[in-house]
Amino acid sequence: MVVMLTSAGLRGDAARCRELGIRAYLPKPVRRKDLLEAIEVVVGGALNQAGDAPLVTVHLLRERRARLRILVAEDNHINQVLAKRLLEKRGHNVVVAGNGHEAIEALEKQSFDAILMDVQMPVMGGLDAATLIREHEKATGAHVPIIALTANAMVGDRERCLRAGMDDYLTKPLQAKELFVMIERVLRSVGQPYTEPVEQPEATPERK
Question: What one-character DSSP code corresponds to residue 164?
């Protein structure tokens, strides 16, 4: 695997890199964070991705940082749709779970950058699910940020959520500005870089 560093990018360089089998192409002076992330993407692609992997560039790294994988654990269908729409409109990838048990099952199948966890759900509520997630993380050393969601904010609710291992707390109905400020806050609190993506325009139907 080859990572190319160049001080003078020219038109057609990307195509030439693909022809030569170069996996990443970064301009100099290269930032340490960009170089390490490019190596991570290249190695991960070589191990996990079938077919032709994309050329890793600074632009691709910026897009990758902006798009998060977010798990929404919520039993109310309307709230599921709202959360999913708000997050996907910003370019994030969303998986929905109907209760805490489904959320834990989803975590066993893939990793997430953050979890929005409703406190009151059937089968398993958010507090119990968060407690189990934190118990599992003791063995792995991982920490996925969990933001509690509740419709009935009462005195002491935030403290109960924090004791269960959640990182912070939001009341419903969700407001876009508060949601994204909170996501940025909890990601930065665990040392994860986050650049707010540009809001995606609404799709317009084609005229026939």
Answer: T
Nearest to 96 by CA among 109, 77, 111, 113: 77
- Write down the residue that tokens 């990793």 correspond to: 111
CB atoms within 10 A of CB 95: 18
* CATH 3.40.50.2300 domain locations along the chain: 67-189
Beta strand segments in 122-173, E: 146-150, 168-171
- In which region does residue 156 sit, left (phi positive, over 0), alpha (psi from -120 to 50) or beta (all else)? left
Q: What is the pTM of this model?
A: 0.66
Identify which of 100, 105, 89 has the alpha carbon closest to the alpha carbon of residue 179: 89
The predicted-structure confidence for 45-85, as pLDDT tens digits, reads as follows 654 454 556 788 887 777 666 688 999 999 999 999 999 99
CATH superfamily of 67-189: Response regulator (3.40.50.2300)
